[in-house]
Amino acid sequence: MRNVKGNKKIIIIFMGAALVLSFSILMAQQKTEKKIEVEAIEDIKNPEAEFEVELWVDREEGTYKPGEEIKFFFKSSKDCYLTLIDVGTSGQVTILFPNEYQKDNKVKAGVTYSIPKEGARYVCRAREPVGEEVVKAIATLDETSLYEEEDVKPSTPEKPFSEFKESEKKVAKDIVIALKPVNTKRWADAEKVIKIIEEKK
User: Fold this and answer.
1) Fewest CB within a 10 Å sphere: which of 29, 119, 121, 175?
2) Which CATH number does the domain housing residue 138 bear?
3) For residue 12, what pLDDT band results from cuts at 50, 70 and 90?
4) Is the peptide bond prior to 66 cis by the omega test (within 30 degrees of 0)?
């Protein structure tokens, strides 16, 4: 009888330890999921990158009125694959690069690229509503797909930029998941905030 009771105690202790271990694993998984829960594309930042990406526009103050043309510029300190994402004041998330007329997103180190490029058959214009628009560059040293083709509306010659079907938060979360297997030294980001202001009457 003593042996039976002893065995029961061992089984109970073992089950208790297993439950604690299961709970710990569950909590660890929840913590991992919380890290993925970014609120916006501008939250995607990597201070550990081993190379730099620069991003700017054609106006130092970065302020535009609805209808005015905007030109974007970017360059990288290393050869990389770069995606340029725009979060408009309406909340619409758009891929500025690559696009219908610049389909290859591989960029050379030290070379300045522009959207639109010189001689392009399209222009970028500031759109209402007024507010702050965020443009994000994400570059990887190895070819990495940040999104699935079915997640965006395809571009056309008339509409050269692909638009995401989902909300900014969902897009941001998917990008974080896509970047998760990439060594933090091998991807970099840059950001530019532009302001769309009301035209004075």
Assistant:
1) 119
2) 2.60.40.3880
3) very low
4) no
Tell me, what's the pLDDT at 39? 86
Same-domain pairing of 85 and 32: no
In a domain, 201, yes or no: no
Beta strand 187-196 with 131-140 is antiparallel
Task: Inform me whether the pLDDT recorded for 94 exceeds 50.
Answer: yes
Angle at 135 between CA 133 and CA 137, to 5 degrees: 170
**59 and 127, same domain (yes or no):** yes
**Is the preceding omega at residue 157 within 30 degrees of 0, hence cis?**
no
Do 113 and 47 lie in one domain? The reply is yes
Tell me the pLDDT tens digit for each residue of 146-160.
999 999 998 988 899
Residue ranges making up the domain that contains 80: 41-196
Residue 116 lies in a domain: yes
138-142 average pLDDT score: 98
**Cα 62 from Cα 64, distance rounded (Å):** 7
Q: Do 95 and 178 share a domain, yes or no?
A: yes
- How many structural domains is the chain composed of? 2
Burial of 191 (0-12, 13-18, 19+ CB in 10 A): middle
Please check whether residue 160 is in contact with residue 99, taking contact to mean a CB–CB distance below 8 angstroms: yes
What tokens were used for 135? 């443009």
